[in-house]
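User: Please write out a complete single-protein record containing the residue sequence and its fold in C-alpha cell form, without commentary.

AI:
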Amino acid sequence: MQNNKYLDPENVIEIKEEIKNTPTLGDLKIILDKTFPDWVQGFINDYSDDYPNLKQHWMNICFENKVTPKQIMIVDFVSFEDNYSLIRIFSEILTLSGFCVRSKNELFSCKNCGKAIPQSHVYNLLKEGGQDIPDLWRTTCSNC
C-alpha cells in the first residue's frame, strides 16, 4: 500500500542526521511532528483483555529491550519499504523505547473502556492463526 504523504522527503539525509543526534524522545517527537505532522493519530493505554497474546508480544519486546511499556501509538501509516525509511526509523526508535506502534488500520479503541481492539481483518488473521481470541469479533471488549 502506497502513501505518498509519508515517502522520504528530499532532505532525508539531513533528517536522519538530526535523528541520530537527538538526545531525548521529546526532541524526537519534535522532529517527527515537523517531518510528518499528521502521522501520529493517538494513543491507547492497553490492549483489551480479550487479546492477551497481543499484549504479551508487546511486553516481550519491551522486556527484550529492557524498557518499560509506554503506550500503544496509533499512526496513520506503516511501511517497511525502502522509500519510507524515515517512517521505519521513527517506528523502530519508538518501539525500542517502549511504545507499541500500530496503524489505525490495525487497531481501534473499545468505545466503552478505550482499550485496543484489532480491526476485523486483523481479528480474522489472528483467528486463522489459531490465537486465543473471542469467538466473535466485536467493537467492544467482552467485559464491556
Observations:
- The helical segments are 12-20, 25-35, 52-64, 85-96, 120-128.
